[in-house]
Design a protein that fits this description.
Shape: globular
CATH superfamily of the largest domain: Periplasmic binding protein-like II
Number of strands: 10
Mean pLDDT: 90
CATH class of the largest domain: Alpha Beta
Structural class: alpha/beta
CATH architecture of the largest domain: 3-Layer(aba) Sandwich
Helix content: 25-40%
Length: 339
């Protein structure tokens, strides 16, 4: 009898158009699982996706360039974190007539500008190198092919020194492999880590690391910095981000990061993204309080984008209408003035 009543009630709800929202399975592509992009993805999966009835799987990847392709071709991948210079490189090549770049980038849409990603240049503690403009003859590991770090390493080298990095000086190992070679056989002089501070790979180093490595500085007033500053931005690396390694703040270079998707138009997908935008608005304070420290640099404002960059309308409408939940004091709760 009870089972029959339940079935009848369920049928009545469906007949009236009142159904339970089904959870959808989506994926977000990030970067190394020891990096900040991965942590940002985990935060979205924990604090935002559930409110949109999305089960969000966080995937570690080789980085931003690979993410653009995965977003286009990998089933289930609906979100990606992408470096601004990688995005722009695809836009530029698309504008120059590259058909593959056009196919990848034309339907790509921005959900939200995130924060500036600091670029960490790691060398041996006894290295004569102290600044980025000292790198001309160094053997540099920019990270895996397909990573944002690899692109910025080679782009910045070309900008600073007027030509491409010689093949004999370049390597494309993972950060972990490169650090072993930096300290071990010394076949690498510099390891480039692109990650918002505190980058877990560096933050988790023990105090003894000071005996083996140091970080290079960027001098924005050096003549070689003029061209890079048209694309990249100086940033302060704070000693508090790496207390086991640093005793004072210093300047490095940084690049913006974006949360992106594709121009999906299927009704169910569009509705899921609308819900994601609403949940991002409603849970933004939780992200800033409990997520990676980089969330404190993110704003829900949607500034004007560069040429070739377009916001995704379903999420943009939600975020532009966003009024984050007011934080209630205990007194206001007692008086019933807010929930």
């Amino acid at each position: 009898m009870l089972v029959g009543a339940a079935v009848a009630a369920g049928g009545l709800l469906l007949a009236c158009g009142v159904g339970l929202a089904a959870t959808v399975d989506y994926k977000i592509v990030t970067a190394s699982d020891k990096g900040t992009y991965y942590a940002i993805g985990k935060d979205l999966a924990r604090y935002v996706a559930p409110g949109a009835d999305i089960n969000l799987e966080v995937l570690a990847t080789s980085g931003s360039a690979a993410n653009v392709k995965l977003l286009r071709y990998e089933p289930g991948v609906k979100f990606a974190v992408v470096q601004a210079d990688v995005f722009q490189a695809f836009v530029d090549r698309s504008g120059a007539g590259n058909a593959e770049a056009s196919a990848l980038i034309r339907p790509l849409r921005v959900i939200l500008p995130l924060y500036n990603t600091e670029i960490h240049y790691i060398v041996r503690a006894d290295s004569p190198l102290n600044y980025l403009h000292d790198l001309r003859d160094a053997k540099i590991n920019g990270g895996l092919v397909g990573s944002g770090a690899a692109l910025i390493t080679h782009t910045l080298y070309r900008m600073m020194f007027g030509g491409p990095m010689p093949d004999a000086q370049a390597s494309f190992l993972s950060n972990e492999e490169a650090l072993v070679k930096l300290i071990g056989d010394k076949s690498v002089d510099v390891v480039v880590v692109a990650a918002g501070q505190p980058a877990p790979l560096i933050a988790n180093m023990k105090p003894e690391a000071q005996k083996f490595i140091k970080l290079l500085k960027f001098d924005p007033n050096h003549p070689s910095a003029k061209l890079p500053l048209g694309t990249y931005t100086p940033a302060t690396v704070f000693a508090r981000s790496y207390p086991n390694l640093l005793s004072e703040d210093f300047t490095t270079i940084s690049v913006g990061a974006f949360l992106v998707t594709y121009d999906y138009n299927l009704r169910g997908t569009v509705e899921s993204f609308r819900s994601f935008g609403r949940s991002l608005c409603q849970n933004f304070e939780r992200l800033q309080e409990h997520g990676h420290p980089k969330w404190r640099e993110v704003k829900l404002a949607l500034p004007e984008l560069g040429s070739g960059w377009i916001y995704y309308p379903p999420t943009a409408r939600e975020l532009r209408a966003c009024t984050p939940k007011k934080r209630c004091s205990n007194e206001e709760r007692i008086l019933g003035l807010c929930n």
